[in-house]
Specification:
Blueprint (H helix, E strand, L loop, with lengths): L21 H19 L4 H8 L6 H4 L1 H24 L1 H12 L1 H8 L3 H30 L4 H30 L4 H19 L5 H9 L12 H11 L1 H22 L1 H7 L4 H29 L2 H20 L3 H29 L5 H53 L17
Membrane topology: Multi-pass membrane protein
Main location: membrane
GO molecular function: transmembrane transporter activity
């Protein structure tokens, strides 16, 4: 039989799945842990550095570094998705590491708060490029069936590294001072992360192209412009836009916890090591919890975890706002981490469920644009409220906003997981 009469074969390409790509997947987990570690160098130390060495008394002024970080990271996330579709994932990852090189040096030698803000602009670019790309690469590798597990492992690695580094930098600062020792740890993370990315990480864009060739298209097919993707993820598509607003509020909470909680704990007389424990407890529970919540969302669906997680976060913030002891704050921090663990990988998995492989990287970028804008919104909102009504009053207000966000998801979002599509409305992607 002549070749032109043969039945077309299924497209041959890279194998999808966690087992088939285990070595590269685990390498990317390790790389993302290093990305998270760089962020973790600031969690305990920087709020106290602003208060003690730069004498920043207004909360709004003190949180400018989080505002700079969040705004820069949000915009960079958007471009990370677009650039990784155009040029490939690995070049974007390498660019993220290169931008990070000056960050610990600026923080160590900063003679004024403006240097700290500048360092956090670069940190935002680093996190936007490097973290976004590891997310996209893992989604590329695992295919459509284990996204929850993949995102749970990815985010667990990143935030466990944040927690461990927050704890370590608190101990280093207590023994050696706020500078330079805590930031030397960040410099080591950057060196190792860059080396692994150059030498061992492989390009994964071909996996996404292969999945796109075999994808069973929904209402939103692969031929969308970036403008159309932006509209879908921001407001038009119910599940995508619900995920975006929940992600924004989630990171607003994180900005509050990062920038103001160490100051609240210090004002109550807690020592640096105890502040470090509290600063580490929240991301530690967050990180470990994602090892359970990511795969759980593959079994029970995305929506229950997102709604429940936002409501638990609201309750945890209320507990912290009303607490006055290490035990109460520790319980609140643990619950805040648990609620965040329910939400964080699940939102990313939901984006991967709905978005077509041809524009999935851009969809992830737009989602992370809104999610990480929460840092900037949180820094500005929490700072202004704290200056007006104190840290506790600001925390109560954010708790109410978080509860409202969870209820909005309950009303507007449909179930996105492939095994539970019965809840999806007609015409949805």
């Amino acid at each position: 039989m002549s070749s032109d009469l043969r039945t077309p074969a299924t497209p041959v390409g890279p194998r999808l799945g966690l087992r088939a790509n285990a070595a590269q997947f685990l390498l990317l987990v390790a790389v993302n842990a290093l990305v998270g570690g760089v962020l973790g160098t600031e969690r305990t130390v920087l709020p106290l550095l602003g208060e003690r060495e730069f004498q920043l008394t207004a909360y709004t002024a003190a949180l400018t570094y989080i505002l700079a970080f969040g705004a820069t990271k949000a915009v960079t996330n958007f471009f990370a998705g677009t650039l990784s579709d155009r040029y490939g994932r690995k070049p974007v990852l390498l660019a993220g590491w290169l931008v990070a090189i000056p960050v610990p040096l600026l923080l160590i030698w900063a003679p004024s708060w403006g240097w700290v803000v500048a360092a956090n602009v670069l940190l935002g670019v680093n996190q936007g490029l490097a973290w976004s790309t590891t997310v996209i690469m893992k989604i590329d590798l695992v295919g459509p069936h284990r996204r929850g597990l993949a995102m749970g492992l990815n985010e667990a690695a990143g935030y466990l590294a944040v927690a461990a580094t927050a704890l370590a930098t608190g101990a280093l600062a207590a023994r050696y001072g706020l500078r330079p020792a805590p930031f030397l740890l960040g410099a080591a993370y950057i060196a190792v992360g860059l080396g692994l990315s150059v030498l061992l990480v492989r390009e994964t864009r071909g996996h996404a192209h292969h999945e796109a060739a075999t994808h069973q298209g929904g209402a939103h097919h692969g031929g969308l412009t970036t403008r159309q993707v932006l509209k879908l993820v921001s407001w038009r598509e119910p599940a995508l836009s619900s995920a975006s607003q929940a992600g924004l509020v989630n990171n607003l909470n994180d900005g509050l916890a990062w920038g103001l909680f160490p100051v609240l704990f210090a004002a109550a007389g807690l020592s640096l090591p105890r502040i470090g424990v509290l600063a580490a407890l929240y991301p530690a529970v967050w990180g470990l919890g994602q090892l359970l919540t990511g795969p759980l969302s593959d079994r029970v669906g995305r929506k229950p975890l997102i709604v429940g997680g936002m409501l638990i976060q609201a309750g945890a913030l209320g507990l912290i706002a009303g607490g006055d002891s290490f035990g109460a704050w520790g319980t609140g921090a643990a619950l805040l981490g648990a609620g965040t663990a329910m939400v964080y990988p699940t939102l990313l998995a939901a984006i991967g469920d709905v978005a077509h492989p041809a524009w999935r990287a851009r969809a992830v970028g737009v989602y992370r644009l809104w999610r990480d804008a929460g840092f900037a919104v949180g820094a500005l909102t929490a700072g202004l409220l704290a200056d007006l009504v104190g840290i506790r009053g600001a925390t109560w207000a954010v708790a109410a906003l978080t509860a409202a966000s969870g209820l909005l998801v309950a009303v507007r979002m449909y179930e996105t997981h492939v095994g539970r599509v019965a809840a999806r409305p007609a015409g949805a992607a």
